[in-house]
Design brief:
heterodimer, A: alpha+beta, Alpha-Beta Plaits, two-stranded antiparallel ribbon, about 15% helix, B: alpha/beta, FAD/NAD(P)-binding domain, seven-stranded mixed beta sheet, 15 helices
């Protein structure tokens, strides 16, 4: 499912700002990044590339059905 | 359902049935997670308001500031990290010291490839200013990193330009016939913003239908539709961008582009082409799957008869072979479909485009047209729209810089930089003798109610479900790419249903879903524009292909189609002759 896990987050919040589709938010209790809206992930990897501690793992599979022009 | 089907559903009835069976939520109660009554309300004032934080927005802000205007930049995402800019890795520079082709020859070449659809003034302007913008980017460190936030932040911070990120602008505000600001809400804080501005520069990019395989799921033609809603003329909705995707994990942009997003940007030189039309879509329509891409001889696909016309000079098949096989084999041995979203690419380097060496699917960039062929209609070469004080630049401006076909690698990013600079300076000059406008309380109340309406609904349709329904209607190859009147009208009936009976019932439980609701509305309006413009254009040319009108009609269609909202609120259309500026001619209304 798109962004698969965030492991080792230091709570800097850069991934939240960086995600073009607003998939990641900070958990108000733990102050760590969480995958809040996985269905909106466009699997572009910007969050992973900007993460300063390489905490984000992403899979190529979309979590909702994908519509293409021919199949 | 097989895994293959799950990962890549073809659109249309099958796709819709499959989605329904998988239980994507449609109508439901709205379980609010925020209190819409408790939203804080803030007002800001500026001379020039820049909306959008990509390449066009960067230069618009810098040049407006340098021309003496108080400048405020607002972006739905983060500076240099939203829209298409982060993924564009080639920027064109016309360098007279190393190029034998003159500016006039370059412009003429683009016009021949674009079959007259380009605006030569914007084509030439892009080339003429490109090297200056590239040199500024080099000074800021743009070519030193694959990630652009740091280099984009440098000139903004040096100039102390105000920057607000993750603010979703939903409305442009016009009073007394002129632009007077914009309104939106924060994704992170429960705040509504009203921006009073002497002028506004839309750098909001273009958009699509949140397609799979192209990193434009945050681009939903927001700027274009906001401008249309206050009376601006917009154009270019019949054109397409023909990027394919890969059959395996079709939605995975990063994987589809084979790591290209991690590459540092490079400078591209002159090389005029005629790419990214709907040739591959025609091949798939005619032959079915699998559709494979690659150099000549690499594919065992059957020969294709007919299909989109390519000028002989730019044909990969040579002259007079209009009906003789697929056109995917480029004459220089390189793949014609470029390399990276919007900017083409270099084969042999990390980051081959989707479809290379594998099975392709279509619709990767569905809902998007060729860069700069859609957006606000300019009234002059200063990126000024038909509304006083409202400017647009880059993919938000229908400048027809490249025409309705992809004509020069890297020109998309260069054009955004050049037009951003021109629009920013022009907006500053426009603002110089103006006062900060007043916005009436009635207008503000009306906008807030419209903006927050999905939060106030106790039940309704989820934006995600309506978006998927729209995708199932619009993305099929036989609707948006290989067009014919009957199916365009059939799709229009569905889209009008979404417009009339689903937009008024969109719900949102939080600020993320409120954003999705507004994006969904913008996509529905765009779909209506695309279908109606496609029905009107009874010919085939560049990236618009009508199966029932396969020939180019140089007698009746040497014209762009402008779209605007009539006084009765209905969508109206008019022809604007190629190589001319907007005239107030009698509109051609689609019935």
């Amino acid at each position: 499912m798109s962004i698969e896990s965030i492991d080792g987050c230091i709570g800097c919040g850069i991934c939240v700002k960086t995600c073009p589709t607003d998939v990641i938010r900070m958990d108000p209790v733990t102050n760590k990044a969480i995958i809040k809206y996985p269905a909106d992930c466009q699997i572009c990897h910007l969050c992973r590339m900007y993460c300063p501690v390489d905490a984000i793992t992403i899979s190529p599979e979309k979590s909702i059905p994908v519509i293409v022009s021919w199949g | 359902m097989s895994r293959r089907k799950f990962m890549g559903l073809a659109g249309g009835a099958l796709g819709m049935a499959a989605i329904a069976s998988m239980g994507v939520a449609g109508w439901a109660a709205n379980k609010l997670e925020i209190d819409p009554e408790a939203l804080e309300y803030l007002e800001n004032e500026t001379d020039v308001l820049i909306i959008g934080g990509g390449m066009a927005g960067l230069f618009a802000a810098v040049k407006a500031h340098d021309a003496g205007a108080k400048t405020l930049m607002v972006s739905k995402g983060r500076l240099g990290s939203s829209g298409e800019t982060p993924f564009a890795k080639g920027i064109f520079a016309y360098d007279p010291s190393t190029t034998e082709m003159s500016l006039d020859e370059f412009t003429d070449g683009v016009s021949r490839s674009a079959i007259g659809t380009n605006n030569p003034i914007y084509t030439r302007q892009m080339a003429e200013h490109s090297l200056d913008r590239v040199n500024e980017l080099r000074e800021w460190g743009f070519f030193d990193s694959a990630l652009y936030n740091k280099s984009f932040s440098k000139p903004i911070e040096e100039r102390n330009i105000d920057l607000l990120e993750r603010i979703v602008i939903t409305n442009l505000i016009k009073e007394n016939g002129k632009i007077c600001g914009a309104a939106g809400f924060s994704l992170d804080e429960e705040k509504v913003y009203i921006f009073k501005a002497k002028s506004v520069v839309l750098c909001t990019g273009a958009g699509g239908f949140k397609p799979n395989g192209f990193p434009i799921c945050d681009l939903t033609h927001d700027g274009t539709i906001m401008a249309y809603n206050i009376g601006a003329k917009v154009t270019g909705k019949e054109w397409n961008d023909g990027h394919p995707g890969q059959a395996t994990n079709s939605a995975a942009c990063f994987d589809g582009w084979h790591g290209m997003f991690e590459r540092v940007p490079s400078v591209e030189s002159v090389g005029i082409r005629h790419d990214l039309g709907v040739d591959l879509n025609y091949m798939a329509y005619t032959n079915g799957n699998p559709v494979q891409m690659g150099p000549p001889g690499a594919s065992e696909s059957k020969k294709v008869v007919g299909g989109p016309y390519v000028p002989a000079e730019f044909s990969q098949r040579g002259p007079d072979k209009h009906d003789d096989g697929p056109k995917d084999g480029p004459k220089d041995g390189k793949h014609p479909r470029g390399g990276k979203p919007g900017e083409g690419g270099k084969d042999g380097e990390a980051g081959s485009p989707p479809g290379m060496g594998g099975v392709s699917v279509g619709g990767s960039s569905a809902g998007m047209a060729i860069h700069k062929s859609e957006g606000l209609v300019p009234i002059n070469d200063k990126c000024e729209s038909t509304i006083p004080g409202l400017f647009a630049a880059g993919d938000a401006l229908g400048s027809y810089m490249a025409g309705a076909i992809y004509t020069q690698i890297g020109s998309s990013l260069a054009g955004s930089a050049v037009q951003g600079g021109i629009a920013g300076k022009a907006a500053a000059e426009y603002s110089a003798d103006k006062k900060i406008p007043n916005i009436s309380k009635t207008k503000i109340k009306e906008i807030k109610e419209e903006m927050l309406a999905p939060l106030h609904r106790t039940e309704g349709y989820s934006p995600a479900w309506v978006t998927q329904t729209l995708q199932g209607i619009m993305i099929p190859n036989f609707i948006i790419y290989i067009k014919k009147e009957g199916l365009l009208k059939a799709a229009l009936a569905y889209i009008e249903e979404l417009r009339d009976h689903h937009i008024p019932m969109l719900k949102a439980a939080d600020l993320h879903e409120l954003r999705l609701a507004h994006e969904t509305v913008n996509m529905i309006t765009t779909a209506e524009m695309k279908l109606k413009a496609s029905i009107l254009r009874t010919e085939s040319r560049c990236s618009h292909y009508r199966l029932d009108y396969p020939e180019t009609d140089k007698e009746n269609w040497q014209a762009w189609i402008n779209i605007f909202k009539g006084e009765d609120g209905r969508m109206k259309f008019e022809k604007q002759a190629f190589d001319s500026w907007p005239a107030s001619g009698k509109p051609l209304e689609y019935i």
